User: Which sequence fits this backbone?
């Protein structure tokens, strides 16, 4: 039974409905009870369906399986048919689980973190709405339904980033996120249209369904040459990837994510770290068949991913805001994921999504806990020494930091190592042979940077002496249970979840479905990378060396961070920045994020503003205000001046109008009362239509026909029969009843032979009793000898 | 003023004479009939072939004479004679008296109407109106609408005109200029249009022929057997009984609706014409003016 | 004599009603005094009544009489309300000239 799939997004949406409509009137306890209950119920349904999916998966011999539910047919126009359908296969099941599991934890965390919030119900309403939209996104069975969720999470992101809209820069951050996402969404839509255009004849009326889009026929369509020798898959893939760039904060559309930290911290954890921003990765994995058809698209994806990973890591070095560091860390890690999917390692991209969701959500929640303790401040320069004051937060934070730095055995180690190994081994069709190695090298540098900035953050927050002022220090306290509980759960998850994706070093007898669970479980749902035939496989030795390299790099980053920031903010760095111009330039570049925001301001927003101002002057001021608004007002006033002459309130003027109108009616109906006959040839012969004329004279007029034009009014067939009978009886002058015996049908069909060339019609006006005779000349088509000849003979005979 | 009054009185006299003549003549025509339908032993009308009851009056049946245009009374049978309605149709008769009557009423009516719209003196106009109404009543009589003719005189000439006279007395203001000359071009145009309209309408109406069965109207009346001898044997088609029967059977709802309308009109008229409240400046002024005018 | 003059038919009555109606219209058009205008409206109603009665006679249907009775009743109601309005208007404006009554407010 797949019929409960719809419950998964519906339950949070119901929660949102309650909290957003009547929530303000309800008590806080009720509000968060509704929110948490709806989300955890959704988690329950997910686990239940997972169990069913497991059954299906096992029945297929561990190579596939999906659950599908059609709720109803949403759009059906011509052969464009979109169903509101949900699909849970192994890929969406993973995402569903992550979203609902982490979502539930963050809802619980929020009850503690947001306890003093005034708009408590609105917060939980938005959060539930987000959950519902995100679940629609991951469960949607076709691109349009996915797009509903895609836009839905965008709206919730906007609402939650701008949650503290009283501060203008926060409200602007929300707007920025929305606008930047729109750019991506536009490309996503274009990609969707292109895909529909390519596959519109496929899928037996299920347009844009993922099953259709993954079929072999669709593959053939993707393979067609589209533009400049590139396949259609390249164009569609790049368009979709631009959409993913917007949602998942990749270059060049990443600028919104750091600003998105204006939202409440649990929101950052849920939306801007664990779930929504990974939607792009999910979408690429979902469309893996398409992406695997074009190595151009994959090279774009992986290169952008690498660049993002490196630049974001670079930005994170000099940030002093706790959440900003984590935000850039998220952007960087998303870059890792895109490199993974861009090298065809879709499964491990998704694996990194999962592990990252655990440790990054944990990091954000930990950061929230720290900021909660520090009276809301996020400046890491004013922290330090919190290890003893916040023991649980510190312990879990340590685990997350180790995980993200790639410490062996923790979640981040396995997933990052798989990505690095996958990039190293990638030798895709059409790629330069060295490109995979180059990606690996770049990612290794990014990983080093990751370890460094994360541990810089750790040391600045937890090590050394506390640099906060007395007042703040006085208030430092460990967070309540509602907040520490999710931290602990996520930490446990961070320790365990990585083991699902161990590298294939040895055969785990009987346990391979657990330890290599990622590849077993996800492979049925994603395509294979378009690897060059005969490309080398990684040997066990190489895998071990790569692991050792990754571990060493991670530890090196930690060591560097300890050396420099082990005892608080580094005097050495400050000194260097102070005196060495090169170092200062570098530091400033990192601190100011390479001035990308300013660059966008100059090259995009500046001309755009100029254009907008021009349009404002031309279109708004001139065209709309002057021509349309004032112009139409002027037209109305001129018209009014004219009509005022008629509508002047004088009764007699109205009387004049009435009389003129009545006279006009008489004039027109008098003119229109042209009685006549029309005829046309039909298979049965001639169809004659009498027009007695309109108006008073035409209504109810009596008709008499003379079809042969012989001067005698035709009788009805019945009358003819009766007369013939009476004549046979010897009555030579049988009586004709003028009221009933004459033919008086307004519409007649007669065989051609019975109609003469001149048809006469007498119309007797009912009112005046006047009779009028009209005659019509019936012209028979000459080219029809079979029809014309006998009638001509007959007419001649008369 | 004096001359117009003289003319008015003359006109009224003419109308009155014409009316008397009309009444006497139509009465005369009607009076010629009773002998032919003297109450006597009458056979059941259902026995008459082709008889189709049209009304649902228990005592009076209006028989459609269409199928039996000239039922000659069988000798020796006491059946009431059902005469050819055409014989009763005085309007369509070629009698010169009828033509004279018609023209008198027609001229009286048109003359009165023109009097109404041309007089500067309001009372004269009202008197012209009364003359018109009398002439119209006469025309009603010629059309066998005797009940309506009486109602016309009672309601119009009696009630409505009295109301007009009252209001004229209240609003008695000398008129500077009786002709409304505002928008004269439009009115001239309308005059042309009206002439055309009247011509078209008149030519259409002048050519109206009675439908085939209209000549049978008014249908003859048969008094059913067993009817009391004081039954209205002269029961006529347009009489009070005839119209009443129709009004209270077929048109009961419109009748009741009209009664509501009249009630509303009465209440509305009182509400509108009532003096404004005392605290209103206009009211005091208006009342003073009204008092002054009357 | 001409048969149109001597032979009176339904057409005579109907044309008469048309003429009476036209006179009523002219009265409404040319007179300033609202009272005369109202009388002219009465003329038009009477013209309509004549036509109704004639047709009733023509078709032998006494229903036309009921109809005419309704018209008379409506005319009476109209006169009552109309005259009341005139009185009210006169109170405010000191005149009852229709070509000066161009606003609904007095």
Assistant:
């Amino acid at each position: 039974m797949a019929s409960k799939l719809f419950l998964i997004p519906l339950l949070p949406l119901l929660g949102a409905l309650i909290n957003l409509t009547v929530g303000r009137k309800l008590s806080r306890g009720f509000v968060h009870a509704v929110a948490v209950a709806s989300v955890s119920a959704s988690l329950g349904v997910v686990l239940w369906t997972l169990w069913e999916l497991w059954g299906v998966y096992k029945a297929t011999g561990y190579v596939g399986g999906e659950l599908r539910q059609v709720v109803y047919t949403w759009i059906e126009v011509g052969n464009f048919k979109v169903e509101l359908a949900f699909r849970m296969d192994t890929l969406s099941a993973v995402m569903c689980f992550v979203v609902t599991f982490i979502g539930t934890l963050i809802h619980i965390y929020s009850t503690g973190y947001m306890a003093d919030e005034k708009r408590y119900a609105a917060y939980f309403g938005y959060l539930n709405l987000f959950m519902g939209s995100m679940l629609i996104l991951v469960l949607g069975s076709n691109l349009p339904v996915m797009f509903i969720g895609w836009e839905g999470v965008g709206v919730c992101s906007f609402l939650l980033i701008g949650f503290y809209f009283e501060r203008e820069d926060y409200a602007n951050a929300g707007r920025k996120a929305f606008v930047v996402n729109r750019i991506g969404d536009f490309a996503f839509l274009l990609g969707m249209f292109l895909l529909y255009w390519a596959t519109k004849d496929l899928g037996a009326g299920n347009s844009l369904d993922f099953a259709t889009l993954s079929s072999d026929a669709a593959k053939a369509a993707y393979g067609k040459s589209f533009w400049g020798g590139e396949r259609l898959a390249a164009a569609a893939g790049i368009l979709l990837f631009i959409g993913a760039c917007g949602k998942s904060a990749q270059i060049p559309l990443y600028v919104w994510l750091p600003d998105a930290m204006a939202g409440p911290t649990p929101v950052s954890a849920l939306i801007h770290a664990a779930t929504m921003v990974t939607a792009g990765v999910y979408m690429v994995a979902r469309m893996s068949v398409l992406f695997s058809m074009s190595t151009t698209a994959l090279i774009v994806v992986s290169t952008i991913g690498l660049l993002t990973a490196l630049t974001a890591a670079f930005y994170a070095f000099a940030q002093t805001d706790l959440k900003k560091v984590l935000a850039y860390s998220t952007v960087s890690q998303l870059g890792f994921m895109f490199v993974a999917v861009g090298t065809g390692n879709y499964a491990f991209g998704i694996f990194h999504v999962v592990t990252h969701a655990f440790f990054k959500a944990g990091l954000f929640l930990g950061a929230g806990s720290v900021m909660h303790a520090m009276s809301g401040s996020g400046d890491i320069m004013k922290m330090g020494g919190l290890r003893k004051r916040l023991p649980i937060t510190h312990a879990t934070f340590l685990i997350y930091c180790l995980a993200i730095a790639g410490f062996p055995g923790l979640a981040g180690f396995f997933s990052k190592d798989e990505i690095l190994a996958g990039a190293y081994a990638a030798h895709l069709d059409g790629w330069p042979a060295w490109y995979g190695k180059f990606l690996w090298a770049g990612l290794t540098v990014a990983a080093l940077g990751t370890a460094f900035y994360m541990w810089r953050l750790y040391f600045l927050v937890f090590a050394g002496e506390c640099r906060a002022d007395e007042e703040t220090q006085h208030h430092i306290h460990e967070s309540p249970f509602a907040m520490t509980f999710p931290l602990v759960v996520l930490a446990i998850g961070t320790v365990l979840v990585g083991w699902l994706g161990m590298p294939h070093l040895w055969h785990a007898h009987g346990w391979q479905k657990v330890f290599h669970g990622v590849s077993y479980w996800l492979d049925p749902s994603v395509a294979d990378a378009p690897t060059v035939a005969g490309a080398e496989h990684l040997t066990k030795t190489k895998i071990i060396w790569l692991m050792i390299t990754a571990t060493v790099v991670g530890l090196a980053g930690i060591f560097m961070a300890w050396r420099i920031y082990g005892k608080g903010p580094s005097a050495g760095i400050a000194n260097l920045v102070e005196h060495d111009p090169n170092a200062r330039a570098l530091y400033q570049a990192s601190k100011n994020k390479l001035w990308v925001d300013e660059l966008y301001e100059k090259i995009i927003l500046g001309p755009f503003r100029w254009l907008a101002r021009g349009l404002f002057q031309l279109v708004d001021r001139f065209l709309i205000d002057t021509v349309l608004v004032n112009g139409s007002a002027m037209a109305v006033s001129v018209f009014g001046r004219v009509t005022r002459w008629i509508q002047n309130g004088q009764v007699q003027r109205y009387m004049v109008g009435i009389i003129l109108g009545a006279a006009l009616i008489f004039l027109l109906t008098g003119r229109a009362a042209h009685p006549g006959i029309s005829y046309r040839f039909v298979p049965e012969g001639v169809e004659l239509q009498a027009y007695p004329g309109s108006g008073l004279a035409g209504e109810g007029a009596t008709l008499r026909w003379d079809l042969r034009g012989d001067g005698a009014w035709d009788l009805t067939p019945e009358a003819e029969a009766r007369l013939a009978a009476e004549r046979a009886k010897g009555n030579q002058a049988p009586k004709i009843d003028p009221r009933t015996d004459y033919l008086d049908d307004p519409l007649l069909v007669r065989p051609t032979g019975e109609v003469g060339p001149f048809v006469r019609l007498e119309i007797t006006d009912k009112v005046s009793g006047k009779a009028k005779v009209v005659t019509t000349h019936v012209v028979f088509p000459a080219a029809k000898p079979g029809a014309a000849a006998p009638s001509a003979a007959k007419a001649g005979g008369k | 003023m004096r001359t117009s009054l003289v003319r008015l009185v003359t006109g009224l006299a003419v109308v009155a004479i014409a009316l008397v003549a009309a009444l006497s003549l139509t009465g005369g025509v009607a009076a010629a009939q009773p002998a032919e339908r003297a109450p006597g032993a009458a056979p059941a009308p259902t026995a008459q072939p082709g008889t189709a009851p049209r009304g649902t009056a228990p005592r009076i049946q209006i028989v459609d004479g269409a199928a039996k245009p000239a039922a000659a009374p069988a000798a020796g049978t006491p059946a009431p004679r059902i005469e050819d309605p055409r014989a009763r149709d005085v309007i369509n008769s070629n009698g010169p008296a009828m033509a004279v009557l018609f023209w008198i009423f027609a001229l009286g009516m048109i003359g009165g109407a023109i009097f109404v719209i041309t007089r500067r003196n309001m009372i004269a106009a009202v008197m012209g109106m009364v003359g018109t109404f009398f002439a119209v009543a006469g025309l009603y009589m010629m059309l066998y609408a005797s009940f309506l003719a009486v109602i016309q005189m009672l309601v119009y000439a009696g009630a409505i005109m009295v109301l007009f006279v009252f209001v004229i007395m209240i609003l008695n203001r000398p008129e500077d200029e009786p002709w409304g000359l505002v928008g004269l071009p439009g009115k001239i145009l309308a005059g042309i249009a009206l002439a055309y309209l009247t011509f078209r309408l008149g030519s259409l109406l002048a050519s109206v022929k009675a439908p085939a069965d209209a000549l049978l109207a008014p249908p003859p009346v048969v008094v059913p057997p067993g009817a009391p001898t004081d039954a209205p044997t002269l029961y006529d088609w347009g009489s009070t009984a005839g119209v009443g029967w129709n009004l209270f059977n077929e048109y009961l709802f419109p009748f009741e609706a009209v009664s509501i309308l009249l009630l509303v009109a009465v209440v509305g008229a009182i509400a509108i014409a009532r003096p404004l409240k005392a605290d209103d400046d206009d009211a005091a002024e208006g009342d003073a003016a009204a008092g002054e005018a009357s | 004599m001409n048969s149109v003059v001597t032979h009176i038919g339904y057409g005579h009555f109907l044309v008469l009603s048309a003429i009476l109606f036209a006179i009523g219209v002219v009265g409404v058009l040319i007179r300033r005094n609202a009272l005369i205008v109202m009388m002219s409206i009465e003329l038009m109603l009477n013209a309509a009544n004549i036509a109704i009665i004639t047709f009733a006679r023509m078709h032998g249907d006494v229903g036309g009489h009921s109809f005419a009775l309704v018209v008379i009743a409506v005319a009476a109601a109209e006169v009552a309300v109309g005259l009341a309005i005139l009185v009210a208007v006169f109170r405010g404006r000191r005149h009852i000239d229709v070509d000066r009554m161009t606003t609904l407010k007095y």
